[in-house]
Design a protein that fits this description.
The chain is 74% helix and 0% strand. It is mainly α and 91 residues long. Helix 1 packs across helix 2, helix 2 packs antiparallel against helix 3 and helix 3 packs antiparallel against helix 4. The chain is globular.
Length: 91
């Protein structure tokens, strides 16, 4: 169920801003989005898994805070990230 090393490396490679970048908001949001998508699929099969549902809600909140930060810092990077990930935006 968790992301494999290969999946993580691929996501980091796609969204990094420079060589060796693993902590930029773009990379963090992309990794959170991948985990959220995995948990969403898990919850479609296991509707009563409330512990996982709570974890999912915490990840969604963390991603929202990270996106809000990115929108405050650089709106162009925010819009590019939201469109490339295919997630909704408030702005």
């Amino acid at each position: 169920m968790p992301l494999t090393k290969e999946q993580k490396a691929e996501i980091i490679q796609k969204y990094r801003r420079f060589e060796g970048d693993t902590g930029s908001p773009e990379v963090q949001v992309a990794l959170l989005t991948a985990r959220i998508n995995l948990l969403t699929e898990h919850l479609r099969q296991h509707k009563h898994d409330y512990h996982t549902r709570r974890g999912l809600m915490m990840l969604v909140g963390e991603r929202k805070r990270m996106l809000d930060y990115l929108a405050r810092q650089d709106i162009q990077r925010y819009r590019a990230l939201v469109s490339s990930l295919g997630i909704r935006s408030k702005q």
